[in-house]
């Protein structure tokens, strides 16, 4: 049953009236900064925000042992964050409304800023210029993380609350392993649907790739550069291996043919040679080199199978090289080890989001294929619930001058509030319960 | 006038009798270790060894300002050593002998060890197995540095000393800039000839390349890897530039044609891509990458001219790349900026060394072309004196399990002692002068 025009207008107004406060809090959250492993302070802030709103709030640890036994968990390396996952639960008083339970999930972790001098403002400035709010992690996805909270606030400000259980989650490790959301899954948090407001440009993610991270290390045969032709240059060996991986990338992209949601994309599978380090001395042939890579995989393809293909591609290069044959490259899986997902069309959750989006934006909801990792996959693959990834307009994600559209944050907050109202149903807010 | 057979035998015996002590001291010097910038402790030890022998001993600083005005000096970077140069002077009492003055020079600095687990013993073990003495810097060239001192000791032990001035120098920075020896040149130390016992396998260096060090840094256009094809991957940009440099290397090697001492070498000019670093995050297209390189140049070719060729090669690549065109690579000259040299045959100094070598080894002195940097070039190019580079048999220089032949150290110490006796002449040692 669609929301009444009066209720829709009332919720829309409530988001608008509170939006200055929402924007200011997003700016504050951006200004916290915090790279991988440094999210404890901002998670404490989120914890205190949840508790002050009366949510039953818990901190979860990402337990390496539990994760190691969990299919689809990312690989825990030394760089893995130890920051807590924060989960707030808002139970309904009435259980007779017919509403459905919901998870609102958002990640709090951000990727590195890169050289600061290439930013127009400080990477964690949170400055607003025109319609753009600038800062690392603003778009991806602290704005969405905060929007979840302020969507619930809007309902409360009109004297309402969800008539079904809502679980709100702020997670680390979405940019590296997915283990923050995986910890909520291991802890048993589930619902009838999940919404994650990643910066999807107000579109719904229909299909999403999986992602694998890996590191390759090779040793060289170091000699004085005066005998360079007798040595084995580890940096040049790594480049041969990259050549083999690029061939694999090409083969993987050829498999887009006939694949729904992906065939029309130009280059859905990106292999990213992302980090490199090697050598100690300009006049010595380098004795070691290592690279960190990321590759995508089509939904329905298992991470284990792509990992095996990667191993084979590297081995193929190694067997053609007189040095690598005897000193095989070492492969470490050090992050994402994740399969992708497809959101089956026609779910009731999607219909409710379509209506909410239409009301908030006066336009029809479009679907997209996302060639990047999303935590939504955990709910789709392991909880088999409708997993909706839908959020604000952003630009330069992972790049310099990352930014998110301010008006889009407001529209998305409105859409989330309308979605909650319709999906969960509403009941009167009773101040005595907090 | 050749040394008498009796004096030759007496000097040879003196080296042999003292050789256990010499070997033990070389082991001690290897065990000091000390990477670039960490040579102060070992130089203090050398200083105390020189003073205990009665040499008038001085510590020199490598002054960046003076170096910056000195043609042929290496470029001073943040990694430049601040360790002192140690110079000992042994003046002759008699100036009537007709002997000639001499510099005995040796570098004390060593190159990095690389991963320690690839060494059979600890890199600074100083272990002797069979005829091999193991350790980083043993061959290159702490054995030679110490041999200079023990050659003089051998003369003293038979009651003799050089009848002309001998300057003994222990220098840092030979592996990176040449600025240790350059500091002695700036300070005005010179002589009628110089001998440097680098590990030349008991051969005389006839011709030697120059060396340039440089770093290239590029910025990328970072984006989320989901838009990898729109980004500019700094690591891949660097690789394009390496391709351009490899072409330059090929062109430079083609110029060996008709070039005395180099035409017969297979690949005299090596461009070494030695160190690489770039990128911050596996799922971001890397925004930066830098490489450190070393390239050789034929003697007679100016470092400035090769630097200009390198700049042109990089610029040529940059103009073909849509991103690098707007974000040109940054080149830093951060070490050697040195021309090579040729030792003109027929000098009296070479004749004296030939005789000394024959006496010490019972074989004829062979000449070699050395495709690596040598401090000898400073004496050859800027002091125009016969510059003899001749030292023991070594293996795996700059590599794992670097080693030097023990019997060869003894032979070379003998040859140096005989060379001093003949070149400088001898006078009776008078204990009251120390």
UniProtKB/TrEMBL annotation, chains A, B:
<dbReference type="InterPro" id="IPR011650">
    <property type="entry name" value="Peptidase_M20_dimer"/>
</dbReference>
<keyword id="KW-0170">Cobalt</keyword>
<dbReference type="InterPro" id="IPR002933">
    <property type="entry name" value="Peptidase_M20"/>
</dbReference>
<keyword id="KW-0862">Zinc</keyword>
<dbReference type="Pfam" id="PF07687">
    <property type="entry name" value="M20_dimer"/>
</dbReference>
<dbReference type="Pfam" id="PF01546">
    <property type="entry name" value="Peptidase_M20"/>
</dbReference>
<dbReference type="InterPro" id="IPR033687">
    <property type="entry name" value="YodQ-like"/>
</dbReference>
<protein>
    <submittedName>
        <fullName>Acetylornithine deacetylase</fullName>
    </submittedName>
</protein>
<keyword id="KW-0378">Hydrolase</keyword>
<keyword id="KW-0479">Metal-binding</keyword>
<feature type="domain" description="Peptidase M20 dimerisation">
    <location>
        <begin position="207"/>
        <end position="318"/>
    </location>
</feature>
<dbReference type="InterPro" id="IPR010182">
    <property type="entry name" value="ArgE/DapE"/>
</dbReference>
<dbReference type="GO" id="GO:0016787">
    <property type="term" value="F:hydrolase activity"/>
</dbReference>
<dbReference type="InterPro" id="IPR036264">
    <property type="entry name" value="Bact_exopeptidase_dim_dom"/>
</dbReference>
<dbReference type="GO" id="GO:0046872">
    <property type="term" value="F:metal ion binding"/>
</dbReference>
<dbReference type="InterPro" id="IPR050072">
    <property type="entry name" value="Peptidase_M20A"/>
</dbReference>
<comment type="similarity">
    <text>Belongs to the peptidase M20A family.</text>
</comment>
């Amino acid at each position: 049953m669609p929301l009444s025009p009066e209720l829709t207008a009332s919720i829309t107004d409530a988001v608008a009236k509170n939006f200055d406060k929402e924007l200011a809090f997003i700016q504050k959250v951006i200004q916290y900064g915090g790279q991988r492993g440094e999210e404890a302070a901002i998670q404490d802030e989120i914890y205190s925000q949840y508790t002050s709103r009366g949510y039953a709030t818990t901190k979860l640890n990402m337990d390496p042992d539990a994760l190691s036994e969990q299919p689809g968990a990312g690989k825990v390396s030394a760089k893995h964050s130890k920051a807590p996952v924060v989960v707030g639960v808002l139970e309904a008083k009435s259980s007779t409304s017919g509403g459905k339970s919901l998870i609102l999930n958002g990640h709090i972790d951000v990727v590195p800023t890169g050289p600061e001098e290439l930013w127009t403002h400080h990477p964690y400035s949170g400055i607003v210029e025109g319609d753009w709010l600038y800062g690392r992690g603003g778009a991806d996805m602290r704005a969405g993380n905060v929007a979840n909270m302020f969507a619930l606030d809007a309902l409360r400000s009109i004297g309402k609350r969800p008539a079904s259980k809502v679980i709100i989650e702020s997670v680390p490790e979405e940019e590296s392993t997915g283990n923050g959301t995986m910890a909520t899954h291991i802890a048993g948090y589930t619902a009838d649907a999940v919404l994650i407001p990643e910066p999807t440009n107000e579109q719904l993610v229909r299909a999403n790739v999986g992602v694998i991270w890996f590191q390759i290390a090779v040793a060289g045969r170091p000699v004085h550069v005066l005998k360079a032709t007798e040595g084995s240059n580890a940096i040049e060996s790594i480049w041969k291996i990259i050549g083999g991986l690029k061939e694999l990338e090409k083969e993987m992209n050829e498999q887009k043919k006939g694949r729904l949601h992906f065939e029309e994309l130009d280059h859905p599978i990106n292999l990213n040679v992302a980090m490199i380090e090697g050598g100690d001395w300009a006049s010595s042939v380098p004795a070691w080199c290592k690279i960190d890579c990321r590759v995508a995989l089509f939904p329905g393809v298992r991470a284990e199978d792509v990992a095996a293909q990667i191993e084979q591609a590297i081995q193929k290069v190694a067997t053609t090289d007189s040095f690598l044959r005897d000193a095989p490259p070492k492969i470490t899986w050090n992050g994402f080890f994740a399969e992708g997902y497809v959101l089956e069309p026609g779910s009731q959750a999607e219909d409710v989001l379509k209506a909410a989006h239409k009301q908030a934006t006066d336009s029809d909801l479009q679907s997209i294929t996302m060639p990047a990792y999303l935590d939504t996959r955990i709910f789709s693959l392991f909880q088999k619930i409708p997993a909706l990834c839908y959020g604000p307009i952003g630009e330069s994600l992972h790049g310099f001058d990352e930014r998110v559209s301010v008006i889009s944050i407001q529209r998305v907050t409105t859409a989330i509030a309308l979605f909650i109202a319709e999906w969960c149903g509403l009941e009167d807010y009773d101040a005595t319960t907090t």
